[in-house]
Amino acid sequence: MEKQMTELEFTAKLRQAGARVFIVGGWVRDLLRHVPAHDKDYMVAGMEEQVFEELFPQAQRVGRAFPVYLVEIDGQHVEVAFARKERKEGTGYRGFAVDYSRDVTLAEDLYRRDTTMNSMAMELPGGEIFDPYGGRQDVEQGIIRPVSPHFAEDPVRALRAARQAAEFRFTLVAETKEAMAACRQELAAEPAERLFQELKRALQTPRPSVFFAALQETNLLAVTFPELAALIGKIQPEAFHPEGDAFVHTLLVLDTVAKETDSPLARFCGLVHDLGKGETPTEMLPHHYDHELRGLDVLKKWNQRMTLPKKWLQAGLFVIEQHMRAPRLTKPGKIVELLLQVAASPLNIAEFQAVIRADHHGLPCYLEDAPGILACLQQVNGGQAPKHLRGAEIGAWVRSRQVKCYQDYDAAKLGKQRYKDQ
């Protein structure tokens, strides 16, 4: 069995060949934040690519425009990039001329990065931290600040800054907001896949609303997530929604769901549940009749523009269709039907509960007790039907028994409650 190369051995080989070796980016930032640091990214300066490949013949080159290699260190495949500087010549994140010669310095490499907290490096093997642009102080103060005008050269950095504000609970300073706003034109032309990746990560942060609010404040929401921007200014009945318009309501629901569950699926459903309100005619406001139907079309168009995971699309459509109906159901047959639909949907019952509870500030009794009721309903199957029944008759029998199961469950609970009240 081939011996695994350690970080110390990797570093020693490079230094003996005259190169310098650094850990860069988020790992250093998280080390200074005193949180678990993940995914070490290495950077090599002062070396030609040919020499690196001779030293590490098993390394796999994965970078196209500039050298990035996958190297196995301490049993993990990690990325090793060459120090580089960039000059913007085109549009988007690929419109760069790149220089990765051995003459590129550490400071030049760090200068091209997005924010100061991501522009620090730790040299190996000694562990000295290089911080030429004040990243350590910005981490201590909890602020996000661009390193240089290079920030706006990759427009998705604007989304990344908004997402990191939500993730780290850091503040976007005025300088950063200006740099984000400058990304608007190019951001509108970015591949939808890049926007989706930041959306996905934003939904996993402690307060996802910060991400969308930051995009709105910097005039970027309309070119990245126009379906959400359309909710702004769509007033609602004050008696039910004293918080304000449909956009503010959506962000409140999103954060409330996020407090209850880490599920990105449930959080996405909270985000999209009221999309149809963005299409409400002005003359109808503050009411939003049939916004559930309009919302289905909006989410389908979103999916055409930015292909969503199949489960996200299915669950989002389900919640849009059911979020107003679920709290109002009283007929046993309709309640049974909805609970079985939840069980068949990509959402589990806890995720569905989280969205409805956040939207309506509570749950109807049947939905509060849904796990127990569902367990009862799912015990009924066609194999239990009388032998003389055929085809559709078996389905009708199953449904009648399920309704009876719910009624018995409901009656038993009501009886227990009366007993408690006596």
Major sheet details = 7 strands, mixed
Spatial gap, N to C terminus = 74 Å
Strand segment count: 11
Gross morphology: elongated
Q: Low-confidence spans: pLDDT under 50, at least 5 residues? A: 417-422
Q: Which topology of the domain at 1-141 does CATH recognise? A: Beta Polymerase, domain 2
Structural class, please?
alpha+beta
Q: Estimate the strand proportion.
A: 5-15%
Task: Identify the quaternary structure here.
Answer: single chain
Roughly what percent helix? 40-55%
Average pLDDT, all residues: 91
CATH architecture of the domain at 1-141: 2-Layer Sandwich
Number of helices: 21
Q: What is the CATH superfamily label of the domain at 1-141?
A: Beta Polymerase, domain 2
**CATH class term of the domain at 1-141:** Alpha Beta
Radius of gyration: 27 Å
As laid out across the biggest beta sheet, the strand order is: 3-4-5-2-1-8-9
Account of the 3D structure:
- By secondary structure, the protein is α+β, with helices and mostly antiparallel strands.
- Among the domains are: 1-141, Beta Polymerase, domain 2, CATH 3.30.460; 382-421.
- The protein contains 21 helices and eleven strands.
- The strands form three sheets. It has a seven-stranded mixed sheet.
- The longest helix has 30 residues, at 392-421.
- The chain starts with 6 loop residues before the first helix and ends with a helix.
- Residues 417-422 have low confidence and may be disordered.
